[in-house]
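Journal club prep, shared notes

We agreed each person brings one worked example of a sequence with its structure written out as tokens. Mine is Phosphocarrier protein HPr. I'm keeping it raw so we can talk through how to read the token line rather than staring at a rendered picture. Sequence first:
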Amino acid sequence: MIKRNVILNNKTGLHARPAALFVKEANKYISDIYVESKGTRVDGKSIIGVMSLGAFHGEEITLIAKGEDEEEAIESLTNLIEYGLDAIDE
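Then the structure, token by token:
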């Protein structure tokens, strides 16, 4: 299992389109993916779960991956959070 803390630096956080993009990316992996925010853990492959976190710009979230491709999943999802969601907000 791998855990990584990341800061949401896109304007809207994990809402609507950014959440959908995150879930789409998470579903590419066999590993179980979870997202934690403010003491709540949700399934990172569930759009309802990710959106229910109410994670906003500037907040820290924890990405968790457990499975055979966990390293690749964490790297990809971290890159998406850090660099790939900004274009959606524009």
